[in-house]
Amino acid sequence: MKLDFSNVIFTDECRATLDGPDGWRQGCATDKQSVPVLKRHQQGGYGVMFWAAIVGDHLVGPYDVAEGVKINSEIYSQFLDDNLFEWYKAQSCTFKRKFMFMHGNAPAHDARYTTGYLYKKGIKGEKIITFPVSLPI
């Protein structure tokens, strides 16, 4: 069976940090300056968490996730309500009949609360595609 990916809503959240997962970074200092101490993410380094959705050639977001917010099922569901479903309301009836929703299998995505929330929105069964957190390359 072929799947028309132009009707799939791909969603995910991500954290971007100034020092990547390998700690690699670059910078410079003049002769009279001391080398600045750079914090790694594990030591409270700087970064931002954001969420976005891609549908066909359209980007929904990205939306900033407030600093210090831990994404649990209730927060994830509210985030979808505030961001994705505001966009979804404006879509055609044809799209709403055909679309499929894809998100990762992070604990907040697969939790009963989220599943129930999506069910109430009419997103259930074949409308949901679970995307693995890590794929082999």
UniProtKB/TrEMBL annotation:
Top-rank taxon: Eukaryota
Gene3D superfamilies the record matches: Ribonuclease H-like superfamily/Ribonuclease H
GO MF term list: nucleic acid binding
Designated name of the protein: Transposase
Organism: Meganyctiphanes norvegica
